[in-house]
Design a protein that fits this description.
It contains five helices and 32 strands. By secondary structure, the protein is mainly β. The protein folds into four domains: 124 residues, Sandwich (Immunoglobulin-like), CATH 2.60.40; 88 residues, Immunoglobulin-like (Sandwich), CATH 2.60.40.10; 82 residues, Immunoglobulin-like, CATH 2.60.40.10; 157 residues, no CATH class. Strands 27, 28, 29, 30, 31 and 32 form a six-stranded antiparallel beta sheet that branches. Strands 3, 4, 6, 7 and 8 form a five-stranded antiparallel beta sheet that branches. The longest helix is centred in the N-terminal third of the chain and has 21 residues. It is elongated, with a radius of gyration of 45 Å. 30% of the residues are buried.
């Protein structure tokens, strides 16, 4: 019975082999290798991939063999038991720079037994270190360049090469012996000169150093240091000075300016000095400045990066849009005190302005008006009324006042000398429909009444004084610095 069973299995196995041959499955390693192709590729410093493909022939799986000698010593390292015609395997923990040879053999599985067939041609690959890639090279401090690059997996360190030629001439300048260090500053360079850099990764193995290919070259021109953030000093209503500290390596400086809320800077001046006074600015306008340092090499100008920007209002006079904090700073200059009448009067001055008014015959004539006003805004008030006097309307003013002590507990801006009343009888104060001060307000009918959109209101607003229009409550004579 036992012999019969063995014979039966032998017959079945023979039938299976015959069926396999009939089905087109080769059963010997010497079969056509074009039916089994193996592509080997390095994908890292210690890894290769084996891609096996059998085209239109499908099999139960493949076995992968490896050797360090092309013609002998192959050992089975992996069996992939999956029906198909394409298989991939990653062979890891290999030595960088060493050549490994592979071959792949297909098999058919019947029951628990594998019947090996086609063997691929032998293919080899060398696990190799990935090449470094320079991220950027930037000029630093007018005499150095900062080189940064990507970290290469498996590297022991990096070598940095430099040339001052577009092609060739590279010299090893630094060996960075740490795999995690990916930056180096090359010092002692010449401003205005272009330098080219290449980085190579390497890996130390037993008794051997393996190098990756070099990175693509990246160049930089050594530029002057960027200037420090400028300072601004306002000299007058149309004049301000911009200054900055000298920048190493600079021969000249270019000033860029933006106006208002714009972030669009335009070149306005190049100078060899470290300051410049502009006479083309306007009071109440915000100007922002940035500086670049320059050096000229032949016919080429090398510029630094922009300095940090610095901006501010031309604030020689008070202005519209002036912040509350800036207004506070003006009237409390030198810690000015307004807590009592005596203290407040120490901060007042008498000014005289020119105004238009009518003579006894109804003709407009020039008159002088004197009144007390806060000394820290007195020049602004004089300038505003000079513009009103020179305006097209020639608006008549027969009465004007500013400083007036209204009591120790008063919050009136008149106590500080920063509110102005004009023609009080013809520009009444109203609480709803009730007149509480003055007699009336009839703009465009009575010549002394001030229109809300007239020249007087527009000019005083330009200098930061706002007509008393608080919704339910109106005070048409009243122009205040804090709007109260």
């Amino acid at each position: 019975m036992e012999n019969f069973t063995k014979k039966r299995f032998a017959v079945i196995a023979a039938i299976i082999v015959v069926m396999a041959i009939a089905a087109g499955y080769p059963t010997e390693a010497k079969a056509d290798t074009s039916q089994c192709n193996a592509a080997i590729k390095s994908v890292g410093y210690n890894t290769v991939t084996i891609n096996a493909n059998t085209g239109n022939y499908w099999h139960s799986g493949v076995a992968i063999f490896r050797s360090t000698s092309k013609n002998s010593g192959y050992k089975k390292i992996k069996v992939i038991e999956r029906y198909g015609n394409s298989w991939t395997y990653r062979d890891t923990k290999l030595k960088s720079g060493k050549v490994y040879y592979y071959k792949v053999q297909t098999f058919e599985k019947y029951g628990k037994k594998r019947y090996y067939g086609v063997t691929s041609a032998i293919a080899g690959a060398r696990p190799k270190l990935g090449a470094a890639s320079i991220k950027k090279v930037i000029s630093k401090n007018a005499d150095s360049a900062l080189i940064t690059w990507n970290r290469v997996e498996g590297s022991t360190g990096y070598e940095i090469y430099r040339s001052d030629k577009a092609k060739g001439g590279y010299t090893l300048i630094k060996k960075v012996d740490r795999s995690k260090s990916v930056r180096y500053t090359d010092k002692g360079l010449t401003v205005g000169k272009r330098y080219y850099y290449i980085v190579k990764a390497y890996r130390n193995t037993t008794g051997k150093t393996v190098y990756a290919g070099g990175s693509k070259k990246v160049s930089v021109v050594i530029a002057p240091c960027k200037p420090g953030r400028p300072s601004i000093v306002v000299y007058g209503p149309t004049s301000e000075n911009v200054s900055w500290a000298p920048a190493m390596g600079a021969q000249s400086y270019t000033i860029y300016r933006a106006e208002g809320n714009s972030n669009s800077y335009r070149k306005v001046m190049t100078t060899k000095a470290t300051s410049y006074t502009f006479g083309d600015v306007n009071n109440g306008i915000y100007y922002s400045y940035k500086i670049k340092a320059n050096v000229k090499i032949g016919n080429k100008c090398i510029r630094s990066e922009f300095s940090k920007a610095k901006g501010g209002y031309v604030d020689y006079y008070t202005y519209d849009n002036e912040s509350f904090e800036h207004r506070e700073k003006r009237i409390h200059y030198s810690e000015a005190n307004y807590g009592t009448q005596a203290a407040s009067e120490q901060n007042q001055v008498t000014i005289t302005i020119r105004v238009w008014d009518f003579d006894s015959n109804g003709n407009k004539v020039t008159k002088n008006k004197s009144f007390k006003v806060n000394k820290y805004i007195s020049e602004s008030v004089k300038q505003a009324f000079e513009e009103i006097y020179n305006g097209n309307e020639k608006f008549p003013i027969h009465e004007i006042g500013a400083y007036s002590w209204r009591g120790d507990n008063s919050t009136s801006e008149h106590c500080l000398g920063i509110a102005i009343d004009i023609n009080s009888n013809e520009n009444c104060m109203m609480d709803g429909d009730t007149v509480v001060a003055g007699s009336f307000w009839k703009p465009y009918e009575n010549p002394y009444s001030i229109p809300l959109d007239g020249e007087v209101a527009r000019i005083l607003k330009k200098y930061g004084f706002y007509q008393g229009d608080w919704g339910y409550r109106k005070d048409y004579m009243h122009f205040s610095y804090f709007g109260g």
